[in-house]
TrEMBL record:
InterPro entries: ARM-like, ARM-type_fold, XPO4/7-like. Transmembrane segments: none annotated. Belongs to the exportin family. The keyword Transport applies. Its main location: cytoplasm. Keywords: Cytoplasm, Nucleus, Protein transport, Transport. This is Exportin-4. It is found in: Cytoplasm; Nucleus. The keyword Protein transport applies. It comes from the Eukaryota. SUPFAM superfamilies: ARM repeat (SSF48371).
Length: 167
C-alpha cells in the first residue's frame, strides 16, 4: 500500500522511515521559504522538483500534508501527489488509486475551515482529476463511495465549511 488506504495514518512506519519523512518535510518547507524570500531559488526549485519527480512520493506527501505548518509545503505535496499519480496511474493498484482519491477528499473535508483555501482547492482538484482519470476503471461500487463522501458534505451534516467545500 502507498500509505493511503481508507484514511489510515503513517502507522507501521519504523524510526528510520519516520526520520526520512521528517527530513523530507523539513527540506520542502525550507525550499518553500527560500522561494518566498527569493534566497537561492534555483536550489529551492530543484528540491521541490525532486519531490514532484520522485517515484511514488505518496507517503512523504501525506506526511507533509498532515504534519507541516507551512501551507506552501502542503500545496507542493498536493501537487506532487497529482503529478505522480497521473504519471504512475497505469501501474498503481486499484485500491491505491481509490485510496489516493479518498485521502484527498477526506483531507479537504477534515480541513474545510482552514484559512489556506488554495491548499484545499489544489487537493479538491487532485481528487477530481484522479476520479476523471479512473472513471472507466472504477466499479459502480467504488464510484458510489466517492459520491457518498461528496454527498454527505453537500447535505451539510458536518457544518457550513464542509458543505461549501462539497459543493
Amino acid at each position: 500500500m502507498l500509505g493511503f488506504p481508507n484514511g489510515s495514518g503513517v502507522g507501521g512506519v519504523g524510526p528510520e522511515d519516520l526520520a526520512q519523512l521528517q527530513s523530507t518535510m523539513r527540506a520542502i518547507e525550507l525550499a518553500c521559504s527560500y522561494i518566498q524570500i527569493n534566497s537561492n531559488p534555483v536550489a529551492a526549485e530543484a528540491t521541490i522538483l525532486s519531490l514532484h519527480k520522485s517515484p511514488q512520493p505518496y507517503k512523504a506527501c501525506r506526511y507533509i500534508l498532515e504534519n507541516s505548518q507551512v501551507a506552501n509545503a502542503r500545496f507542493q505535496a498536493a501537487a506532487a501527489i497529482r503529478e505522480a499519480a497521473i504519471r504512475e496511474w497505469s501501474f498503481l493498484a486499484t485500491d491505491d488509486k481509490g485510496g489516493l482519491i479518498s485521502f484527498c477528499l477526506g483531507y479537504v473535508m477534515q480541513h474545510a475551515n482552514s484559512s489556506e483555501g488554495y491548499v484545499l482547492s489544489k487537493l479538491s482538484s487532485v481528487a477530481a482529476q484522479l476520479m476523471k482519470r479512473g472513471w472507466l476503471e472504477f466499479t459502480p461500487a467504488e464510484k458510489e463511495v466517492f459520491f457518498y463522501q461528496i454527498n454527505q458534505a453537500i447535505l451539510g451534516s458536518r457544518g457550513l465549511d464542509v458543505q461549501f467545500i462539497g459543493i
